[in-house]
Structure formats: structure tokens, C-alpha cells
Amino acid sequence: MTPFLQLIFTLTIIILAAKSAGYLVTRLGQPSVLGELLVGILLGPTLIDLTHLPFITDPHLGEIIYEMGELGVLMLMFIAGLELHLSDLTRETRASAYAGILGVLVPVGFGLGTGLMLGQPFTLALFLGLSLGATSVSISAQTLIEMKALRSRIGLTLLGAAVFDDVLVILLLSIFVAVSSGGNGLTETALVLLKMIVFLGASAAFGIWLLPRLSRLVARLSVSQGSLAFAIVILLVYGLAAELVGGMAAITGTFMAGLMFSRTPEKSVIEPGLHAIAYGFFVPIFFISIGLGVDLANLGLDAVWLTLVITVVAILGKVIGSGIGGRLGRLNWRESLQLGVGMISRGEVGLIVAQLGLDEGLLDQTTFSAVIGMVILTTVVTPPLLRASFAQPKPAPQPGGQEEVS
Fold it and tell me: Which of 239, 333, 341, 351 is nearest to 289 (CA)?
């Protein structure tokens, strides 16, 4: 087969498998994203190795699938922002700030302590802690969307906390890399912070003052699907600017783009079109692509045990850190637990941090494999744990077997 036919074949299997697995797990009372993540692992090198079957000869196919999946997560976070309003997030700023900050500091401390207890050098142990501090809320956002809870108090706090988490993790990583490479940590930190402020300020100013006017102008043009095409362009520009200007994750930029578009009258035109494109094609590819890059079968015994240890530490770190942050932000205990669970997933952000550590020589191969395993496990367990945390307890039976009449 030609490379194009190989791509068509692979995409057919991915979308069919993703939707089938999603349907099966929803029948079991779980969010569809769980099935898509699990079937992605099965399609990857752990079992089937879809992109390296004997008749798949295109060496770039795996990279193409991965990049198409990245477009999917950008659209997913844009849709999450589109379903909210800027004023929604500002109502929970205090809880978001505490949860985001403590949701980084506590896992970093736990990871550092775990690394030192396992006999790792301080530098390696510290980077292990930093890799546990990252959070990717794309999985939690999708789960909350399915549960129709994205606009709940927990959903709003979770999305706001993710922004604080992203900023703090990048600052800490920048300081660490600068100091470990012999650079000026203070100067590097100031530069990184300045870039973030410039990006956040410029993107907010553009979104508040210019974007509504441009949206109205485009809507009046006789262009087929002009508003939808314009939204996709802005989505991509915000993601690009977040990476290149702000030094932040692209998903943070596309989430902001969605928030800005939620203020425009064209939202009602954009939302259904983007939903169809994203959930019909790109988002399933993203969830499957997470598993396609993971080979659990090649994990050595040392890496397996280390994976289990740091996964437990990673889960506890987020639940405790973000949970305490939620309590400080005046959430009740149940809401704080839901918030902590929603921050567990490391997703693609964790993969990026782990790869940085390997490239910079800050993680050895065993620890890198364990961190990748932790990222996959935390990503897989988040949807069912989050759904369970939202489950309403059954009322206790009344004495004599009679139901209470209200």
C-alpha cells in the first residue's frame, strides 16, 4: 500500500476502535474516554503495534497520527473554554489558585522525598518530583463534559487551577534547568515570567476588544463556514502563541481562545461545527495516540516497581495538595476530593516533562520508563475515579422497609 492508503487504513481502525470501546465502557457506567485510552494501549506496541504492522512501511505514520492527535487535544480544550464564560472562572479564583499552587508543590515534595528514599541523587530526585507536579486536565475536562458537570463549581475551579498549575510548573522547570546547566536562575525565571505575562495580557486584550469585532465582520462575509474557519484559525494562533510567546502549553492557549469566543454571538454557530469535527475525528485520535506511544511490555522489573511507587505518590500528591487547596478556597470536603481527583491525570503534559528530563540527562532510562508508566496509569484511572467521586450515595433504608415519603 502507498503511504496514503496506510494512513487511511490506520485512521479507520483508530476511529472505529475508539468509538466501539467508548460505547462499551459507557454501557458499564464509565466515561467513554476510559475505553478510548485502554484500547489505545492495546493498539500500541504493548499488544498489536498498529503503526508497525508488517504491511505498514511508512516510517512517518506514527508521527502523523501523533500530530493529528495533538490537534484533537487543542480542539478539546477550546471546546471546554467555549462552554464557559470568563466571569465563571473569576468566581472561583481563590480556590483555583490554592489548588493549582499546592497541587504542584505537594507532589513535587512527595516526589523529591520518594526519589531520595530510593537512593537517587538529589538532582534526579528533584526532577522526579517536578515530573509529578504537572497536570493535564484534558482528560478530566472530557469526563466532566460527558457528565454535564463542566460548568459546576468543581469544573470551573479545576480549569482555573490548571492554569495556575501550568504557570508554576513551567517556572519551576525553568529555574531547575537554568541552575543545573550553570545559568542564572533568577534571570531565567524573570524572563519566563515576563513572557507569560505578555502572552496572557496580549491574548486577553485581543480576545476582549478585537475578537468580537472581527467575529462579526467574518460572520457578515459570504464565505462558506466562515465563522467556523475563523475560530479554527484563532484556536491555532492562540496555541502557537502560548508555546512561542508565553512558553506555556498550547492547550492553555486554546482554552483561553475558547473562553474569548464564548463571549461572541457567533458561539452558537461555531460550537456545533467544531463539536462535529473534534469528536467525530480528531479527539478520538488523541486518546488513542496516547497508548500508541507506550510499550508496557518492555518495562523491566525495576521500572515496574518504580512505576507503581511513583504512581501512588503522584495520585496522593494531587489529591492531598489540590484537595487542601480546595479547602483553603472554601470548598467542602466532598468538593475538595473531587477537585483533587480531577487534577490526577498527567496526560500529554507529563509526557512532555518526562521527555525534557531524558533529553537533558536529568532522568535515567529506568526512571524515564517509570514516569511514562505513571503518566499512563494516572491518565487511565482519572475518569473512573472522577465519576465515582461525583456519584451520589444511596439513601439508607428506612426502618421497617418503608420508604420515606417527602
Answer: 351
* Band (398; pLDDT cuts 50, 70, 90): low
Distance CA 5, CA 278 (A): 22
Q: CB 312: neighbour CB atoms within 10 A? A: 14
- Cα gap 398→394, rounded to integer Å: 12
In this structure, the dihedral spanned by the alpha carbons of residues 141, 145, 151 and 153, taken in order and rounded to 10 degrees, is -60
Whole-prediction pTM: 0.83
Domains and CATH numbers, the chain: 68-286+299-387 (1.20.1530.20)
Share of the chain above pLDDT 90, in %: 62
* Model pLDDT for residues 132-167, shown as the tens digit of each residue: 998 888 889 999 999 999 989 999 999 999 989 988
Rg of the chain on CA atoms, in Å: 22
Q: Residue 351 has what pLDDT?
A: 76
Report whether 347 contacts 136 (CB < 8 A): yes
Q: What angle do CA 95, 236, 218 make, to 5 degrees?
A: 105
Cell 485502554 belongs to residue: 38
Question: Where does 118-225 have alpha helices with state H?
Answer: 122-133, 138-146, 153-180, 185-205, 211-220
Query: What is the C-alpha to C-alpha distance for residues 264 and 385, in angstroms, rounded to an integer?
Result: 35
**104 neighbors 133 (Cβ within 8 angstroms):** yes
C-alpha cell at 212: 468580537
CA-to-CA dists, residue 344 to 169, 214, 301, 324, angstroms: 15, 38, 25, 14
Q: Percent of the chain beyond pLDDT 70?
A: 95
Half-sphere exposure of 158 (CA within 13 A, CB side): 36
Q: What are phi and psi of 55, to 5 degrees?
A: -90, 0
Cβ(371)–Cβ(29) below 8 Å: no
Instruction: Tell me: pLDDT of 183 over 90.
Output: no
**Cβ neighbour number for residue 121 with a 10 Å cutoff:** 11
Instruction: With cut-offs at 50, 70 and 90, classify the pLDDT of residue 356.
Output: confident
